[in-house]
Specification:
Radius of gyration: 13 Å
Distance between the termini: 39 Å
Structural class: mainly beta
Number of strands: 11
Shape: globular
Strand content: over 45%
Largest sheet: 7 strands, mixed
């Protein structure tokens, strides 16, 4: 089972940037579509962005389009989330996750399509 470890969270002012990283423990990570989700206090976990196992396809939640960029470096077993123009409403714990099956042909926005999850990293955006 692939283990995922997020890093890069922190406290930033509105309008600032952060880059989150998600490191996988195994090279088999390269076969899985990956997603970023977030959960704010008192709210349900929500989809943020996803990337195909090849890196060729991406998909974003409408509220982050044009501000966030998901990417991956399969040589480093790592997926990234570059977050620019951050807003206070982006404050949440951010999780990366790997889909439950390899070589997925479609990107999923539902959390139950993902099997392996990291422990999360806190992102706080002050106004």
């Amino acid at each position: 089972q692939v283990q995922l470890v997020e890093s890069g969270g922190g406290l930033v002012q509105a309008g600032g940037s952060l880059r989150l990283s998600c490191a996988a423990s195994e090279r088999s990570f390269n076969s899985y579509n990956m997603g970023w989700f977030r959960q704010a206090p008192g709210k349900e976990r929500e989809f943020v962005a996803a990337i195909s196992w090849t890196g060729g396809n991406t998909y974003y939640q409408d509220s982050v389009k044009g501000r966030f960029t998901i990417s991956r470096d399969n040589a480093k077993n790592t997926v990234y989330l570059q977050m620019n123009s951050l807003k206070p409403e982006d404050t949440a714990v951010y999780y990366c996750a790997a889909e439950s099956r390899p070589y997925g042909s479609r990107l999923n926005v539902r959390a139950n399509a993902y099997l392996n999850w990291g422990q999360g990293t806190q992102v706080t955006v002050s106004s």
